[in-house]
Amino acid sequence: MMQYTLKVDGMQCGMCEAHINDTVRKAVPVKKVHSSHTKKQTVVITEEAIDEQALREAIDRTGYTVLSVESGPYVKKGLFSRK
Length: 83
Fold this sequence. Notes:
This protein is an alpha+beta fold. It has helices at residues 14-27, 52-61; strands at 2-9, 32-36, 41-46, 65-73. A hairpin with a 4-residue loop joins strand 2 and strand 3. It is globular.
């Protein structure tokens, strides 16, 4: 699984977060998506690698601005996980 962390400018409230989440769900196949206007970021978890440019363009079309995209393998953090 892959995790993408996007820095998104323009989110001001919970409705903005919901708008971004809905846009991401429609643009790419996701397992989980979570946005935070206070952190100014959206975290997307997918089964397989996705087209980062398509994700960026979908969000940009809504009026928000994607400042950066970081990606890497997703590591589940559970109650009993150890490093």
